[in-house]
Design brief:
Layout (H helix, E strand, L loop, with lengths): L9 E4 L5 E7 L2 E8 L2 E9 L10 E4 L5 E11 L2 E10 L6 E10 L6 E7 L5 E6 L5 E5 L5 E3 L28
């Protein structure tokens, strides 16, 4: 099939039992929801010059709005801008924010991200940066990074992320 079509998907279920799926579709990041009438799909973000790829995470907030964290690469003159982005449809439209970005001479992807929402609806993300270090970021007061919380570089074999909380505020403490 087309590059990245249906790859790297994530699923979450909202409070009324509807499944939500986030996935890559060639040059697009997509979100699908199962409604009584069938599946409804919508575009979250689109890249015109380089297909997105890599892990993505999906969480549903207390108002049944979707939150997605994904990787993005843009070609800028003589370098690549490597982004980790967060998107939500909480306003009724998809709004995208940059969590982290690095300029490099070639495309490198943020890997193994994990997203959880706390009781206030703030997003908390753990991810493997393009430099091989583990990072934590939250949008509680804008996206705040806490760099190098693990004191050594990890390899792709050292850490894979996963999250599965129905009520994250019971589990998250700083």
């Amino acid at each position: 099939g087309p590059l990245g079509c249906g790859e790297w998907c994530a699923i979450a279920v909202d409070s009324i039992g509807r499944p939500h799926i986030a996935y890559y579709d060639n040059l697009k990041i997509m979100h699908a929801t199962k409604l009584p009438t069938g599946w409804q799909s919508e575009m979250i973000d689109e890249n015109t010059n380089l297909a997105p790829r890599g892990d993505l995470s999906l969480a549903i907030d207390g108002s049944n709005n979707a939150h997605v964290v994904y990787h993005w690469v843009a070609i800028e003159q003589n370098s690549y801008e490597n982004y980790l982005k967060h998107a939500t449809n909480a306003t009724g439209n998809w709004v995208n924010e940059k969590i982290d970005n690095r300029s490099t001479a070639y495309a490198i992807y943020y890997e193994h991200n994990s997203l959880v929402l706390d009781g206030n609806g703030s997003a908390h993300v753990a991810y493997l940066g393009v430099d091989g270090l583990l990072y934590y970021a939250t949008n509680g007061d804008g996206w705040i990074k806490k760099d190098n919380w693990l004191s050594y570089q990890v390899s792709e074999c050292d850490w894979y992320s996963s999250s599965s909380f129905s009520n994250a505020s019971k589990y998250y403490q700083e």
